[in-house]
Amino acid sequence: MEPAVTKKSNVISLDRQNLRAVKCEKCGAKMYPRSLLRPHLSRHRRRQRWVNSELRKLQYTFAHMRDIA
Question: pTM to 2 decimals?
Answer without folding.
Answer: 0.66
